[in-house]
Amino acid sequence: MHRFYCPDPESGLLDAAESHHARSVLRIKVGERCAVFDGKGKEVQAKVTEVGKHQLSFNVLSCQQSQPLPFSIHLIQALTKGKSWSLILEKSTELGVSSILPVLSDRSVTRISPEDSGKQEKWRQEIIAACKQSGRNYLPRLSPVTTISQLDGCLPAPEAPKFIASLQPGALPLGQALDQALASGAHTDITIAVGPEGDFSPAELGEFHAEGYQPVTLGPNVLRAETAAIYLCAVLFHEMQHRL
Fold first, then answer.
1. Chain-centre distance for alpha carbon 143
2. pTM above 0.85, yes or no
3. What is the pLDDT of residues 93-140, one digit of tens each?
4. How far is Cα of residue 152 from the mean position of the Cα atoms in its chain?
5. Which end of the chain is more exposed for a tag (fewer CB within 10 A), N or C?
6. Which of 186, 203, 204 is nearest to 195 (CA)?
7. Do 104 and 147 touch, CB atoms closer than 8 A?
């Protein structure tokens, strides 16, 4: 069954972009059934009543509210090149992260203005597409692009345990770091930071360490930025799901 995103399913209308996709790409017809979710946990079963040039209408047949996860994973990710960045957005969404915080770093190849709303909207659409594909009914929160020095004020859970993927000697294995973090309190939020290709600069690593980020190793091999992000999201999702 096709899935569509609509912030207000009770309106019975898809926006122009979703309507265009339904009509021109999926070739959906009047009378077909579909699922519509609002990004906040609600999903309705719907029946298409009209397929117009710019708008699709539907009737709500039934409604259910998905329960949120009992934990939250917040991904701080240094900006990477286009395809790599799209992969990070897609896979971290599929793997259940609650928020994605893009940061500009000294070694980021991609350089955009924090005020670039066009990029932000493109990324949001990629996140919506990942939710549609994966059956997820909660949209992750996508923060505006920020810098590391301004990051602290953007954290959804500033008191949560914070990890940073590290190539430095002395970094703890992820499982050991998680054991220590969860033993110190009933935390349900975890924040993880992943650098760009070549890692964060020494000065940036110093900023993270000063803010209490625990360096963690992801194994003996040097991973690409997108691989590191996907690995961390997958392992943390699995661990948190079984520990809470």
1. 10
2. yes
3. 999 999 999 999 987 776 666 556 678 899 999 999 999 999 999 999
4. 18
5. N
6. 204
7. yes
